[in-house]
Amino acid sequence: MKPAGRGCGAPARRCDLDHTKDWQYHGLSDHDNLAHLCPKHHDQKHHTRWKVEHLGDGDLSWTSPTGHRYLTEPAIRLDAAL
Ligand SMILES: [Zn+2]
Fold first, then answer.
1. Average pLDDT estimate for 2-10
2. 82 CA from centroid of ligand 1 (Å)
3. CA 28–ligand 1 middle distance (angstroms)
4. What integer is the mean pLDDT of 42-70?
5. Rounded Cα distance, 65 and 76, in Å
6. Which domain holds residue 18?
7. Distance 42 CA to ligand 1 centre (A)
8. What does the pLDDT average to over 48-73?
9. More confident residue, 60 or 4
10. Number of structural domains the chain divides into
């Protein structure tokens, strides 16, 4: 498993399991709303103007404050039915 931050090489064991749509805003703890983010990328998501959208199947869209969009995908895709 690798983290979901753009260009991130942090091992997943050092990452937080982040709700892409915040739990406090009724984001669910399910397969299509959770991603491993290292502390740096977790902080970037919550405390900067970057926006993150879960596209499903582990793919994330990161939109920079200038509007550039970057896609990340998981190293391993898990079967949502498991
Ligand atoms: Zn990271």
1. 72
2. 26
3. 22
4. 93
5. 29
6. 12-72
7. 7
8. 92
9. 60
10. 1
77 assigned to some structural domain: no
**42 within domain boundaries:** yes
Reported pTM: 0.80
On the question of pLDDT at 82 being above 60, the answer is: no
Contact 60, 53 (CB under 8 A): yes
Average pLDDT, the chain: 87
Q: Residue 41 falls within a domain, yes or no?
A: yes
Task: Compute the distance between CA of residue 47 and CA of residue 53 in angstroms, rounded to an integer.
Answer: 15
Tell how far the Cα of 21 is from the centroid of ligand 1, in angstroms: 18
C-alpha 36 to ligand 1 mean position (Å) = 9
Asked whether residue 4 is assigned to any structural domain, the reply reads no
Rounded CA separation 62/57 (Å): 15
Mention every residue, 6+ apart, whose C-beta is less than 8 A from residue 32. 54, 56, 57, 80
H or E element, residue 46: helix 39-47
Placement of tokens 């983290």 in the chain: 3
